[in-house]
Amino acid sequence: MALIVQKYGGTSVANPDRIANVANRVIQAWRDGHKMVVVLSAMAGETDRLIGLGKELAEDPDPRELDVLLATGEQVTVSLFSIFLRAQGVPATSLLSHQARIYTDRAYGRARILGIDTARIKEELKKNRVVTVAGFQGVDEVGNITTLGRGGSDTTAVAMAAALKADCCEIYTDVDGVYTADPRICPTARKLERITYDEMLEMASLGAKVLEIRSVGFARRYGVPLVVRSSFTKAPGTLVTVEDEEMEIVPVSGVALSRNDARVTITRVPDRPGIAVRLFRPVADANIVVDMIIQNTSIEGYTDLTFTVPQDDLKKTMELIRPVAAEVGAQQVVGDTNIAKISIVGVGMKNNAGVAARMFEALSGENINILMISTSEIKISCVIEDKYGELAVRVLHDAFDLGQPPPKR
Ligand code: ASP
Ligand code: MG
Fold it and tell me: Which of 21, 396, 386, 397 is nearest to 188 (CA)?
């Protein structure tokens, strides 16, 4: 008998039929004797619909009130789910964030989970009840409703699994696992049996949308075994886990494309101590996450600085950078949204030489110009022109033979 946390995404609970369909999976597991905690997203499209409603009344809806609004999406699905379970004679209790005691900070729209008091949930489980928990939402210390950011239900599920020391956390979605590349872009993409937490973190941050990135960080930190699988099939899915030697044989496990970044270039920046901090401090204080940063070798006391931020933050970033750039005597600030970031990821990169050269060769074979490069131990990313993004995915997938299952040791 195991304690299992299952999470169902929006497409899996998009209508009453689908709710009944996935609830039957839960019932099966519960009848097999497992303790079941079910974290749910809002119905597909619902969160967007609610945001749209808010925006009809205000260009920039107040973040506190927007979170109160958005939290209703998950309230609907947990209650419907429990209504169905109860009608089937299965004892079930739905819990919203304050009832499930999911405590967060007060960063509306991007709140962080600080802790979960599991007493209530454990009580319900002890009574052999299925608990349905509203994903994506939390409460701050005085009871304000917060939300965790888009896709945040994954984080709710993993945090819940960690807090309950669950045996497994299963994330059910509309794809049957993690692929070597996005199958919609790359027809030869292959489902991975396993992927390491580190690789998954890179893939998630690079634009593979299967799992929300914070959930993977949580899973790694607390060693939560994570399975990604489809709610529409019985296929086994992909296990996200710690690495072992076999996973290091191949240099590259996957290719990811991100089209949500924008590039900011500041030209002729005086090369003196203290300039970089003056430029980046206001951006950091505005909670904008800067990704790649490249500074050139300076010529005659001046240098160029280029960095990337999420596209949604470009306007704000430009507003923050422009006055500082003028103050320090830089020449100009240019923003560019016409970029894509293409990345290859693999724990095996650590032990295989020539991976970068092979990547650059493959891109050059298609005449794709590389605008920026950055690397980590298990990742190489190139910023290229947006229009080449999808082609680059296919080219790199081929170049590293990702369509073939890796050799076994
Ligand atoms: N409903 C929220 C969203 O659409 C959270 C989630 O589905 O994970 O972003
Ligand atoms: Mg999701």
Answer: 397
